[in-house]
Specification:
alpha+beta, Alpha-Beta Plaits, Calcium-transporting ATPase, cytoplasmic transduction domain A, six-stranded antiparallel β-sheet, membrane, HMA_dom_sf, phosphoprotein
Length: 803
């Protein structure tokens, strides 16, 4: 079995029941492993066996259910074709490209038309494929081939239909208001009281503007389910056709005016529901603002060195290995490594870290970050979908498209909700017609329509996904990537955080913390001498001393000889001086006496530091302490976790003395030291057996098993790819302050979901009885229903303002 995952953009959904129906329809297909449809972001995630079923069959299934799959088309001019074999080769090559639905190449016109899924490929990927096949292509119309914003087009279409509907409905409302006793003085043109004029005004609203509801209801009922469209179609059709019946009946009695018509009810309902849909679509658009911001960060143009000259090219055309010139104030187009130059780079848009970070040769830089001051020359290492920015966008989109466990409740409710409402509406009609107001068809109809309209389950379907979209988007802006909606929901229950030491609490790089000498005036000279002596060593401790020396003088002196003494230290000749650096035993073996005044080894080692003794020409001149330094924010982050009532544990393979010394610095009381990588998962399991909900935070390959076993695995973005793959959450910048932020965002998001679900259910629970009691005019019910969805989305959008 070959599992493939595809994402589709679905159009035509009107409520959560639509999403559930598509989901069930896809899941029933042979070869489909799983299908998740998100009503809020209008995306479907489908995993299937490509040997059993293909993408086109999945799209056909969605269309057979009454919806459509969004595809885009691009027109190309193709150069380099010489015969029919060329066009056939390009066609076959493009049709094999993931995301391409159909490619048609015209040899005579030297053009191509390609239909593709924008979630899986782009116009630039298509052009690159043609170039890889040995030809060239350019965009026929727009050089940038910007995709149509279909959501924007949908909002524009709905807005246009709303205004047409409103213009046609306004005279009907005018006539309706004129019927009230308190508006008896209101002038109403005689023509508006004419039933045939009202019929003429209501008909286009009912069958042209409202056609979307009939279409949705037809497909829903054909597939043995019911959705919001069924309720709207039933309610408005009842009002419209009853009015038509009264008009036809009036012909037999030769009555010219009918005061009991309900044309305005059906027209106003459709107008208000459409207005609600416009507001809902606009608000839903804001819930993915974080993704749009990230997508817009990458610059369109790059400056590349070609043949000794700097040329301006499209960012999409940058190749791996290209040397790019990044001017001050410019965005970096791709991920790369600094080749030459130094500058501060603002990475806040990716990490949430406000302060710019100094970058120099051999340091990594990322697409969409901003070069603040100096000129940088970088070597491109990752392009297109390989960049950190692209991976962040992909993770956030997948999280927004997934379903949280809490949403299953909403799905179950909305799945049975519409049939129950239809039943309630039928009972309402019967009670009114046969008991409350015997024989009064109009009164029974009004209450029935109000029940049908107010009960639409849109708000219920939007409650969870909009909160997940807003919460995960805001988290991404803060440098927190939740992989799935489930991980976002589970994180709220965490009561224990287990922290790896090296690279998580500490920086993971040894650094000189103490350089103790007799005379302060000799200090700089001895530091440079120590760095020069260690310059030929590859040991991590040596690198710490070399880095320490380069801060004083970037140019180190050369040593005339060098000898590494494994497990003990080094011996080197610098400026004709013999420099010995290493353990106490090394000095003892060389008959060098340790100076009592400089001998602070015991106290330094008690603090978890590695101690080295330095001798020049057989005289002990300095004692050096080296340690893996604690990150600047670790202590503050752990204090915040304690304030939140979180139990914090340090888990490390390091020796107990060093581990406890680091724990004292950051305020951790619980330390588990000397644990082998294979046993870290056992420690997590033991904590879980005590009934704790455990989050494991790590950055290395050795942390991966523990990250998988934990209830929530949190990987530091500065760590290994293996750790990030195993984790549920990734902290892009590796800052521990993001851990309390992660817990906070999860708690706020789940609280927001519960608020939405409560109000959506409370709204229906209160609204249906009021409507059934005849206390709610149908048009008021329609307005309330339309704006309930908007209120749910607006509540979710509050998450985007979390500090």
């Amino acid at each position: 079995m070959t599992d493939t995952q595809q994402e589709y953009s679905i159009t035509g959904m009107t409520c959560a029941a639509c999403a559930n129906r598509i989901e069930k329809g896809l899941q029933k297909m042979e070869g489909v492993t799983s299908a998740t449809v998100n009503y809020a972001n209008e995306k479907a995630q489908v995993r299937y066996d490509e040997k059993t079923i293909d993408s086109k069959q999945l799209e056909e299934k969605v269309r057979s259910l009454g919806y459509d799959v969004l595809n885009e088309e691009v027109d190309l001019r193709i150069q380099g074709m010489t015969c029919a074999a060329c066009s056939t080769r390009i066609e076959k090559g493009l049709n094999r490209l993931t995301g391409v639905n159909q490619a048609n190449i015209n040899l005579a016109l030297e053009t191509g038309k390609v239909s593709f899924n924008p979630n899986h490929t782009s116009p630039h990927d298509i052009v690159k494929k043609i170039q890889d096949l040995g030809y060239d292509a350019t965009f026929k119309n727009d050089a940038k081939a910007e995709a149509i914003d279909y959501k924007k087009a949908d909002i524009q279409k709905k807005t246009r239909l709303f205004w047409i509907s409103a213009i046609l409905s306004l005279p009907l409302i005018w006539a309706m208001v004129g019927h009230f006793t308190f508006t008896s003085n209101l002038y109403v043109p005689e023509i508006l009281m004419n039933p045939y004029v009202q019929w003429a005004l209501a008909t286009p609203v009912q069958f042209w503007i409202g056609w979307m509801f009939y279409k949705g209801a037809y497909y829903a009922l054909r597939n043995k389910s019911a959705n919001m469209d069924v309720l709207v179609a039933l309610g408005t059709s009842a009002a419209y056709f009853y009015s038509v019946y009264l008009v036809v009946e009036s012909l037999q009695h030769e009555e010219s005016h009918m005061l009991g018509l309900y044309f305005e009810t059906s027209a106003v309902l459709i107008t208000l529901i459409l207005l609600g849909k416009v507001f809902e679509a606009r608000a839903k658009g804001h819930s993915s603002d974080a993704i749009k911001k990230l997508m817009n960060l990458q610059p369109a143009i790059a400056l590349v060195e070609r043949d000794g000259q700097i040329v301006e090219i499209a960012a999409e055309s940058v190749q791996k290995g290209d040397i790019l010139v990044i001017k001050p104030g410019s965005s970096i187009p791709v991920d790369g490594v600094v080749f030459s130059g130094s500058s501060a780079v603002d990475e806040s848009m990716l990490t949430g870290e406000s302060l710019p970070i100094e970058k120099g040769p051999d340091q990594e830089v990322y697409a969409a970050t901003i070069n603040v001051n100096g000129v940088l020359r970088i070597t491109a290492t990752k392009i297109g979908k390989e960049t950190v920015l692209s991976s962040i966008i992909r993770v956030v989109e997948e999280a927004q498209g997934s379903k949280a466990p809490i949403q299953r409740l909403a799905d179950r409710i909305s799945g049975i909700f519409v049939p129950i409402v239809v039943g309630i509406a039928l009972i309402t009609f019967l009670v009114w017609y046969f008991i409350v107001d015997i024989g009064n068809f109009a009164a029974a109809l009004e209450s029935t329509i109000a029940v049908l309209v107010i009960a639409c389950p849109c708000a219920l379907g939007l409650a969870t996904p909009t909160s997940i979209m807003a919460g995960s988007g805001r988290s991404a802006e803060l440098g927190i990537l939740f992989k799935t909606a489930e991980s976002m929901e589970t994180t709220k229950s965490i009561d224990t955080v287990v922290l790896d030491k090296t690279g998580t609490i500490t920086k993971g790089k040894p650094a000189v913390t103490d350089f103790i000498v007799h005379k302060e005036q000799d200090r700089e000279r001895l530091i440079q001498l120590a760095a020069a002596a260690e310059n030929n060593s590859e040991h991590p401790v040596a690198h710490a001393i070399i880095s320490f020396g380069k801060k004083i003088n970037p140019v180190l002196q050369n040593s005339s000889s060098f000898e590494a003494i494994p497990g003990h230290g080094i011996s080197s000749i610098v400026e004709s001086k013999e420099v010995v650096m290493g353990t106490r035993k090394l000095l003892f073996d060389r008959n060098i006496k340790v100076d009592n005044e400089l001998d602070r080894g015991a106290s330094l080692e008690q603090d978890g530091k590695t101690v080295m003794f330095m001798a020049v020409d057989q005289v002990h001149v300095a004692t050096i302490a080296i340690a893996d330094q604690v990150k600047d924010t670790s202590k503050e982050a752990i204090a915040k976790l304690h304030q939140m009532g979180i139990h914090v544990v340090m888990l490390t393979g390091d020796q107990e003395t060093t581990a406890k010394a680091i724990a004292r610095q950051v305020g951790i009381d619980n330390v588990v030291a000397g644990v082998l990588p294979t046993k870290k998962a056992d420690v997590i399991t033991a904590l879980q057996s005590e009934g704790r909900k455990v989050a494991m935070v790590g950055d290395g390959i050795n942390d991966a098993p523990a990250l998988v076993v934990a209830d929530i695995g949190i990987a530091m973005g500065t760590g290994t790819a293996v750790a990030m793959e195993a984790a549920d959450v990734t902290l892009i910048h590796g800052d521990l302050l993001r851990i309390p932020d992660t817990l906070k965002m999860s708690r706020l998001t789940v609280r927001n979901i519960k608020q939405n679900l409560f109000w959506a259910l409370a709204y229906n629970s209160i609204g249906i009885p009021i409507a059934a009691a005849g206390l709610l005019a149908p048009w008021v019910a329609g307005a309330a229903m339309a704006f309930s969805s908007v209120s749910v989305v607006l509540n979710a959008l509050r998450l985007q303002r979390v500090k």
